[in-house]
Each structure stands twice: as C-alpha cells, then as structure tokens.
Amino acid sequence: MRSYKQPGSKRILTDERASARSVWSMYQRLFTHAREQWRKMLLALVAIIVISLMEFAIPQLTAYTIDHVIPDKRYSELLWIGAGILGAALFLGLFTYLSSYLLSYIGQHTINRLRNELYQHLQKQDMAFFDKNRTGDLMSRITGDVSILQQLVSSGMLQMVTELVTFFAIAIYMLYVNPQLTFLMLCTFPILFFFTRKVGKRMRSSFRAVQESSADVNNHLVENLSSVRLMKAYATEPYEAQQFQQRSIRNMQASLAATRISAMFSPAIDLLNYIGMAVVLLFGAWQAMSGAISIGAIVAFLAYLRLLQTPVRQLSRMINMIQQSAAAYDRISEILDTQPSVTEKADAITLPPLRGEIEFSHATFGYQPDLPVLHDFTLRIAPGTVTALVGSSGAGKSTVAHLISRFYDVQDGYVRVDGFDVTDLKLASLRGQLGIVSQDIILLNGTIRDNIAYGRPDASDQEIENAARAANAHDFIVSFPDGYQSAVGERGVKLSGGQKQRLSIARAILINPQLIILDEATAALDTESENLIQQALSSLLTGRTCLVIAHRLSTIQQADQIVVMEKGRIVETGTHAELLQAEGRYHQLYALQFPQAAAAKEPLIY
Ligand SMILES: Nc1ncnc2c1ncn2[C@@H]1O[C@H](COP(=O)(O)OP(=O)(O)OP(=O)(O)O)[C@@H](O)[C@H]1O
C-alpha cells in the first residue's frame, strides 16, 4: 500500500504496462507481416511437435531398457532399441533442419516486409520530419534496429517455439507421472518469473541506450564521410578522429552497461535450476529407496528434468533477445507512429495539365509555427510569365518555392496553383508538373543518362540528347570517353560546378514542365560557363511560367515582375525599370551590385 502512494510508482506502473504493450504490439506487427506465410508456419509447427515427440521418446527407450530389458536379459530387443534410438535421432535431425529452414524463411520474409513498410512510411514523411531527424539515425533504425528484430524472428522464434512446446509437453507428462516431484521442481519458477520481470525492464532501457549510441556513431559517420572534402581542406582529421572516438567510447560504455545487467541472468537462472535439480534428486532418491518409483523412472525423470531445464536456461538468452528487440521495435514504431502533416486528402484531385498560374493569398508560414518566416504573403503569378524574387539572405525567397511544391503547408491563408488549393491536390500530380532547378544540385551516383532521365526513366535516347543539347550539356557529355554512360561519381564529384548545373537543367527540360522554379546558384562561374548556363536557362524558360529566386540582379532585368522581399514580407513589386525609378529597396540592392548603372537608372547592357 505504501509503495502505491509513492509519487514515482504510478509512472513505473505505466512504464511496465507500456513495456508489456510494446512487446505485445511488436509480436502483433510481426505477425501481421508473417500472416501470409501461414502454410509454412503450420508446417514448421508440425515439425516442432515432431521434434518434441522425438525428444520425449528417447528417454522412454532408456527407461524401458533399464527397467525391463536389462533385468529380464532380453538380448533380442537390444537391436530394436538401438534402431529405435537411431530412427528417432534421424527424425530429430530431419525435422530440426526443416523447422529451422522454415522459420528462417518466415523470419526473412517478415523482416523484408517490415523493412519495406518502414521505408515507404519514411518516404511519406514531410520535409519537416527530415529537417528534424538525422540521416544516420534514420539509417540505423532501418538497418540496425530491423536486423535486431530479424534475429528474433529467425533464430529466436524457432528456439522459443521449440522450447515452449517441449517445456509444456514434458511438464504435463511429468505432472502425470509424478505430480509431487514435478511441483517440487517447479517451485523455483515463480521466483524466476518475478526476477525476469524486474530485470527485464532495466535491460530494455539499457539496450535502448546501446541502440541510440550506435545511431549516434552512424550519424557522425554519415555526416563526416559525406563532407570529407571539408575535413581535408581544413585539416581537421585529428579533431574528427577524436569526435568519432568519443562516440565510439560512449557506445562501448552503453554496451557494457547493458551487459552488466543481462549477464546477471544466466548465473541466476542456473542457480535456480540447480536448486530444482537438487530437490528432485533428493526427493526422487528417497522415493526410489523407499521403493515408490523404479530406478529407470528416476533416470528418465532426471533426463526430462534436463530437457525441461534447457528451455529455462535458454530463457536468459531469449529475454535478452526479446528486450533488445523490444527496444529496437520502440525505435522503429516511433517512425511508424509518426504521421506526416503534409498529407493527401482522401478525395484529392489530380491536377490537370498545368497552365502555370500561382496565387498566394495572405499566406503565413513558419518552420516552427510560433516563428513565422512568411507574413501575410499575397502574390499572383500569371501563366507564361517570369517572376523574380529578390531580397536579402533569409528574407524567405526559397520558402515561397517550398510552399508551391507543398514541401510544407501554410499555417494561414492559402497557396493556389491554376486555381486549385495545393492541399486539395494529389501530391504527385502537383510535384510531377514542376521543374525545380535548385542551387543545391543533387546528382545521384549513376551515369549522366540516369541523372538526366531521373524524372522520366522511360525517356528515349533521342529525348535525353535533345534535353542535353537545349541545356548546352551535349558537347561536354560527348567529350567524355563513355559519353552519356559516364559515371558522375557520388553526388556528381566527377563533374565541374557548371557541368552539374547544366545536367540539372537538362533534367528539368526533359520533364517539360509548365512551371519552373529556379533557385539561382550563387556560385561564381567563369563568364563562359555562365553564358552557357544563361542560354540553357533561356531555352528552359521560354513559354513557361517561371519563378526565379535571384541573387544576381543582372539575370532578371527582363522579368515580367520583380518581387522584393524583406523579413518574410513583400516590400516592392514592379518591373526592373519601375523599381529603379521608385528608388526603394530594389534600387538599393541594385546599387550595391552595379553602382554606375544604378546611378543612371539604366538596365545593365552586356
Ligand atoms: N528547414 C528549415 N527549418 C527552420 N528554419 C528554416 C528552414 N529553412 C529556412 N529556415 C529559416 O527561414 C528563413 C527564410 O529562409 P529562406 O531559405 O526562405 O531564405 P532565402 O531568402 O531563400 O535566403 P537565401 O537568399 O540566403 O537563400 C531563414 O531565417 C531561415 O533561417
């Protein structure tokens, strides 16, 4: 009663329930994935029952030999008994092989499905989820944590089911043969049960710490190895090695802490087993001496006792595995339970072929809802026109582009494309019609052809070449020995900045989008490649609606409208000439880049 009133007890109670619920929900989810393998599961169960029967039969033969064959000198039966044991052993081997293969098959299929479910669930997450979660951590959940569950489903399940069936079969038989002896032997089990519950909970949290610390090692590796150039350029190898070592040590310490708890299990279970055995031996010997049971019966009883204790001894290993899997499953369900906030409505509509009209109406948005980045943002972009967004760094220009692609949802107001609220549209029908050329060019480790065809894998060679020509990329591509089949290296490391940019333009041209979002690169390119890129861009922009996020004001003077943003608000809108005339913020920005032209209020002429 006293402990019930302790402030922490309710929490512990809740933890225990949560822990039991999570092990249960782990089995439920695994079973959902395993369900379609029910025929194999049934076969495996039959195999397991046969194994138990064989294990049961062998001691029976021993008891029969001791009690009947030896005293009655039945020489002729010896051969049959030998053949019986050999036959049982052969069956045992065959069915152990069968059940082991079948359970592993079911396990591998279950895990494969779970891994795919997890990956597809990750794909559905919105950008805010990926802003929050680190790649290394997500990777370790999909690979590391899933592999831990794999152990449980493949070998663990086999062992657990076999041991349980054997345990119950033998316990029931023993109860039938000698209930007194069996009760005495089982008297240690409640102690074992409570010990397991108590320690199991602590094990689970220590396993979670191990998995988190190994995810931290993973995170460090992913970030570090993908920015190896930065590390080499700043000669920070010793610093990074130290950082890595610290994480590795934390992982080792967490593993040792988990081992300190889990290693207690084996000796404790052994001790309880020995106590049980001593009780059986003493009481059994006393019964045999008083003639209540035969010597053969006590030999068989001790053999069963050994069989009964094997599953109990395995229990420590299984509890370790279950607790470790439950900790891994907790981490996996954190992803599976996360619902994206950017979702498609059940009755979402497919966006018809795009005309290219964009409308923001009183849109308010913040990456954190209480910190708005765009305030009451209203803007209309007419089809087939070019709109340039300019303003100082952090003004919210890229955010406007993210909202059109619906990477995030506005908190207030709305964003419309061709008159449709973007939240009413099927995401693929919206995003599939947008061409995005961003300043962070993302190339995949594949060939040049693969990279251009990324948005349209079915494109013909001719279409790919036409897109590359329009993007001024064909000439440099064919100058490589392998042409379009040249590998670009991880993240395009084998290409120059200008070449990467032209490939990303070719990729956008190939999908022939009616709406282009161009986040202009700030990287200084030499005049020749800048001209090539400008030409490529003009072939991309012709006849389409275009939103250019401009950093170099030289490139946007022909834009139909220039929108000047500051701190998430529109401060000016007009053409280049109008804005220069107004002598406002645009004029200031222009004067910073081109002092003479700004003084004369003239467009820049090359
Ligand atoms: N994923 C994000 N999570 C949280 N805050 C963000 C995120 N992306 C941008 N921000 C913040 O939102 C604000 C607007 O950023 P945005 O990238 O839209 O500016 P920008 O005008 O495009 O800047 P630049 O010209 O430097 O590219 C900035 O204050 C930035 O710190």
Automatic annotation (TrEMBL):
Keywords, comma-separated and alphabetical: ATP-binding, Cell membrane, Membrane, Nucleotide-binding, Transmembrane, Transmembrane helix, Transport
Keyword field contains Transport: yes
An example Gene Ontology molecular-function term: ATP binding
Protein's UniProt keywords contain Thylakoid: no
Any single Gene Ontology cellular-component annotation: plasma membrane
ABC transmembrane type-1 domain span: 42-324
Membrane topology, record value: Multi-pass membrane protein
CDD domains for the chain: ABC_6TM_exporters (cd07346)
Location within or outside the cell: Cell membrane
Bilayer-crossing regions: 41-58, 78-103, 157-176, 182-200, 257-283, 289-308
Record domain ABC transporter: where: 358-592
Entries under SMART domains matching the protein: AAA
One Pfam family cited in the UniProt record for this chain: ABC_membrane
Superkingdom to which the source organism belongs: Bacteria
Protein's name according to its UniProt entry: ABC transporter
Taxonomy of the source species: Bacteria, Bacillati, Bacillota, Bacilli, Bacillales
